[in-house]
Design brief:
mainly alpha; binds heme C
């Protein structure tokens, strides 16, 4: 999700938001995996507070 979403959302605020929620930048797969899964869909999944489909439809 970090890789896909930062293609567009790449300002400092967006990047710090993503980093603080488990997103990894320029890390090895092993290091990224060790941090555990990205938590993005807790808030950005369907029907959640920042549903991606709803946000991109605005
Ligand atoms: C605790 C809830 C929560 C989690 C977890 C979360 N987000 Fe968000 N995110 C939000 C909210 C709320 C917004 C603001 C939505 C709005 O603009 O109203 C937001 C905004 C964003 C934006 C738009 C920023 C901009 O450019 O304005 C991006 C991109 C984003 N999140 C990506 C991610 C990614 C990738 C992850 C996982 C690594 C993630 N988020 C995890 C709640 C969350």
């Amino acid at each position: 999700m970090t890789a896909a979403c930062t293609a567009g959302h790449d300002d400092a605020l967006a990047i710090s938001h993503i980093k603080s929620r488990g997103g990894s930048f320029y890390e090895t797969r092993v290091a990224a995996k060790a941090k555990g899964p990205e938590s993005c869909l807790l808030c950005h999944g369907p029907g959640k507070i920042a549903d991606i489909k709803v946000m991109h439809g605005q």
